[in-house]
Specification:
Layout: H1 3-10, H2 17-20, E1 59-63, E2 69-78, H3 88-105, E3 109-112, H4 126-134, E4 141-148, H5 154-167, E5 172-177, H6 184-190, H7 201-213, E6 237-242, H8 245-254, E7 258-260, H9 262-265, H10 270-280, E8 292-300, H11 304-322, H12 332-336, H13 342-354, E9 356-358, H14 360-374, E10 378-382, H15 388-402
Length: about 400
């Protein structure tokens, strides 16, 4: 029996309240629930470094100043962004086409986010998009980033992803999150028990792991006899996603890979979350060592001027979001023509400095530097542009600058 299975036998419930609150900060939704029947305390282990990732088609090679070589896998996060005066179906179609494009370019994974009632993002059902992409790709891994588990039954999610694994065996990633991906009202529309479900998150993750991998649930579990079908020789790779140290603790407890949403917090809390993840990591059968990734916002173009031009659309949407307005992406020319206050211009300059925007060489070097600094094994890149051709070109330029190995076209 794998150590992951053994963990399920022992009934790992998740991080304790004391550990999640040890830093003394963070909103209640990001702290671990009080320990009860579903939870057990986590025993810390000595910190260990993430292993050097294995060679793959989607690997960046960078020579550091000391002469050593850093290996870093490069992936994609897509959010099906709404475009001003364009049908939402076009955004979904862009997602499907981008997945095929990025597979041909040699990217490692193509992940899809989940948001609800969000005027800027129309990607509400990653599991359906994964199925559509799985039928038109052959090599790239496809996954959720992620399924917001408190909205759903873990058993149903396990069944969905077992079906996806049957469609694309060995290529499915199941990224999990605890945040609502929406506002409070929408969370209740998705699940009338929205106030209660986040407290069950660690136990839900435990159950989901068991059903996805075909491992036994703890003795006395009311659903121990249930099986998630279809079964098969492979199973989805489960990831924990987050933008706080709570997800890092859950990932460490269950021996799962962990991806931090660097673009969501502009890096705030990222180093601390990764440190806690490595410090508390408990090995599992599939992942004997911690495996960390970051998701960064990046945009490359032939010139810095062109990259900054297209970035204006993203900056405009973020300014509106800061005011509680979730609007579709505007054309760059429209975003640049807006009358901004000095404070807004300063905020836009800050966004530009924190995002990875520029020529391919500049962007790739910034990605590499962040990878070296935080010792991460993978980077997922998310890019928003109103002009879809500019977005596709950005991913192509990054792939070329990073030296990704292109895949042959699908016959």
């Amino acid at each position: 029996m794998s150590s992951q299975s053994q963990a399920n036998e022992k009934g790992r419930g998740g991080p304790s309240d004391r550990q999640a609150g040890s830093r003394g900060r963070g909103h209640a939704c990001c702290r671990a629930p009080p320990r009860g029947n579903n939870g057990v305390a986590v025993a810390g282990i000595a910190r260990r470094r993430s292993p050097t990732p294995l060679w793959s088609r989607a690997v960046l090679k960078f020579a550091a100043s000391e002469g050593d070589v850093i290996l870093l896998r490069l992936s994609v996060l897509d959010q099906s962004v709404a475009l001003l005066d364009r049908p939402h179906a076009e955004s979904i179609g862009n997602t499907l086409a981008l997945a095929r494009h990025c597979e041909a370019l040699g990217y490692e994974r193509f992940w899809l986010s989940e948001h609800h009632n969000h005027g800027s993002i129309v990607g509400t059902a990653p599991e359906i998009l994964i199925a559509a992409i799985a039928t038109t790709t052959r090599q790239i891994r496809i996954g959720s980033a992620g399924v917001m588990l408190p909205h759903y039954s873990p058993f149903k999610v396990a069944e969905q992803f077992r079906v996806l694994d049957a469609i694309a065996p060995g290529r499915i990633d199941l990224g999990l999150g605890r945040a609502p991906g929406s506002d409070g009202r929408t969370a209740f529309a998705l699940n009338p028990l929205a106030n209660e479900r986040p407290a069950h998150f660690p136990a839900d993750v435990r159950d989901l792991i068991a059903w996805v991998t075909g491992s036994p649930l703890p003795d006395g579990h009311p659903f121990r006899q249930l099986h998630a079908y279809p079964e098969g020789k492979t199973s989805p790779e489960i990831w924990m996603l987050g933008s706080s140290d709570y997800g890092a603790q859950v990932a460490a407890h269950f021996g799962l890979p962990y991806a931090f949403a660097w673009f969501f917090t502009d890096g705030k809390g990222g180093a601390e979350a990764l440190g806690l993840y490595r410090q508390l990591y408990q090995p599992s059968g599939r992942h004997p060592e911690p495996h960390a990734a970051l998701c960064v916002w990046a945009l490359a173009a032939e010139t810095e001027e062109e990259a900054r031009y297209h970035f204006a659309s993203r900056a405009r949407v973020r300014l509106l979001r800061d005011r509680g307005i979730f609007a579709p992406l505007e054309p760059a020319e429209m975003a640049l023509s807006q009358a901004y206050t000095e404070l807004e211009r300063a905020r836009m300059a800050q966004m530009l400095s924190e995002a990875f925007v520029g020529t391919p060489g500049q962007v790739v070097e910034r990605i590499a530097e962040l990878g070296r600094r935080l010792d991460v094994a993978e980077m997922a890149v998310v890019t928003w542009t109103y002009d879809e051709a500019a977005r596709r070109k950005s991913y192509a330029l990054l792939a070329e600058a990073a030296g990704l190995a292109a895949r042959p076209p699908l016959l």
